[in-house]
């Protein structure tokens, strides 16, 4: 949702009123400040764009963490990647980088996670 040329909010649309006032949740602004919920009056925003729902990297990290010892799986939110075993295995939206048996296990988890997402 764009308020001005360089001011915007990105979040999940939770509700809309008859007057086109919007409620967004899990919101970030152009400065990456996070808001749990905001209400934007229709007179305040210029236009709204619809984007895909982001890939749930945190959910994937949580699933991967079930097979590794505590502390070996690190979700790096600002880069939107998962670092496993101190960077020996890296996971992003596009797949898994790394070699060996652990990387193969992570690749299987990643593929199953994507299948589960498609079912939703």
Topology:
Layout: E1 2-4, E2 7-16, E3 22-29, E4 34-40, H1 57-64, E5 73-76, E6 81-84, E7 89-92, E8 95-97, H2 101-119
Antiparallel strand pairs: 1-2, 2-3, 3-4, 5-6, 6-7, 7-8
Primary descriptors:
120 residues, alpha+beta, TATA-Binding Protein, 2 domains, four-stranded antiparallel beta sheet, 2 helices, 8 strands
Percent of residues in helical segments?
10-25%
Number of helices: 2
Element order: H for helix, E for strand: EEEEHEEEEH
Largest sheet: 4 strands, antiparallel
CATH second-level architecture of the largest domain: 2-Layer Sandwich
CATH class of the largest domain: Alpha Beta
Beta-strand segment tally: 8
Mean pLDDT: 90
CATH topology of the largest domain: TATA-Binding Protein
Q: How many separate domains make up the residues? A: 2
Question: Radius of gyration, rounded?
Answer: 18 Å
Give the N-terminus to C-terminus distance in angstroms.
26 Å
Low-confidence stretches: none
Overall 3D shape: elongated
Order of strands side by side in the largest beta sheet? Answer: 1-2-3-4
Strand content: 35-45%
């Amino acid at each position: 949702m764009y308020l001005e040329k360089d001011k915007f909010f990105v979040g999940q649309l939770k509700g809309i009123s008859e007057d086109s006032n919007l409620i967004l949740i899990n919101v970030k602004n152009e400065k990456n400040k996070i808001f749990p919920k905001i209400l934007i009056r229709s007179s305040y925003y210029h236009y709204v764009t619809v984007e895909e729902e982001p890939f749930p990297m945190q959910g994937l990290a949580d699933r991967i963490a079930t097979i590794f010892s505590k502390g070996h799986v690190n979700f790096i939110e600002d880069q939107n990647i998962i670092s496993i075993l101190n960077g020996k295995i890296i996971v992003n939206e596009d797949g898994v980088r790394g070699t060996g048996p652990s990387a193969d296990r992570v690749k299987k988890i990643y593929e199953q996670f994507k299948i589960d997402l498609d079912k939703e």
